[in-house]
Amino acid sequence: MVNSTSFLLLLSLLTFVPSCLCSTKFGGYLYPQFYDYSCPRAQEIVKSILANAVANEPRIAASLLRLHFHDCFVKGCDASILLDSSGSITSEKGSNPNRNSARGFEVIDEIKSTLEKECPHTVSCADILALSARDSTVLTGGPSWEVPLGRRDSRGASIKGSNNNIAAPNNTFQTILTKFNLQGLDIVDLVALSGSHTIGNSRCTSFRQMLYSQTGNAKVEFTLDQYYAAELRNLCPRSGGDQNLFVLDYVTPTKFDNNYFKNLLAYKGLLSSDEVLLSKNQESAELVKQYAENNDLFFQQFAKSMIKMGNISPLTGPRGEIRKNCRKINT
Ligand code: HEM
């Protein structure tokens, strides 16, 4: 029997329950209001520094969106990617997916040092990455979502995890899907999140094998438009030019929209990992077509999948720490 006092207590408790109590693998909870009392201006500060950074260099939005992904797939969303090598820590920045590629660390440093002045030892680097990924999406024209917060920062990094868990552009469709499944993400998340390639750049070295066959004959992969491939070969020769940059979405390179999916249907996806979504699996091909047709559907699913990705094994409660400097663990 519930008496009236306990009923009222229950009711008042429910009133204060945050709108998204996102449960995590380890039973910790993230929720958007986490800093409402401890650092009420946190979100505003992240957004304004990011807006300046993106105005200076539009690509930074893409780079920060990718950093959150590369963080979450390695030991969870715990800012392990931000640690520099020191002592027993080997930085993830030197892993195959990140070396000469992951960027945006200086912007995270600027946000962190401003937040340390505003509310010392309060806002985690992992949450800064999650907020930056959302704001980067919004600033480039994509959807918005409430970011569940309360992640804490790791006291270690895993270069092995970074090499193994993050999909490579030449992985097969099945390998890529398996890597997502291992993080609790499904085929819908895979296709929607790959839509991030609507902004940002890739180096020649990441897609060269799409342009030249294994044997060295100039035989283009059958999934790539011949004219598009010929253009790409101009600046991405068989050897040399590894670091030359190409836009991932040649139609609207700095705008977050569904052109990535339209490009795939026109056989103008840049990475092999993009093309296989259309060519190697019926279910993902169907999703590519749906997102190409319906921008709203893509935006809705992208926001959902980003929240799901942001919930991968966060450190909560007494686990981890709030780093003072995102590049090193506290002493
Ligand atoms: C599905 C598996 C994926 C593979 C194989 C993959 C691979 C790549 C590669 C090779 C690049 C170019 C890197 C370079 O050459 O420097 C890239 C760029 C990028 N990726 Fe992915 N990616 C995947 C999924 C994702 C996801 C899930 C996100 C975000 C949620 C994402 C966001 C980005 C962004 C925004 C860029 C551009 C970065 C910049 O311009 O700095 N990618 N990705």
UniProtKB/TrEMBL annotation:
Biological process according to GO: hydrogen peroxide catabolic process; response to oxidative stress
CC cofactor note: Binds 1 heme b (iron(II)-protoporphyrin IX) group per subunit. Binds 2 calcium ions per subunit.
A GO molecular-function annotation: lactoperoxidase activity
Region forming the signal peptide: 1-22
Record's subcellular location: Secreted
Catalysed reaction, written as an equation: 2 a phenolic donor + H2O2 = 2 a phenolic radical donor + 2 H2O
Family stated for the protein in its record: Belongs to the peroxidase family. Classical plant (class III) peroxidase subfamily. Belongs to the peroxidase family. Ascorbate peroxidase subfamily.
Protein name: Peroxidase
Natural source organism: Lupinus angustifolius
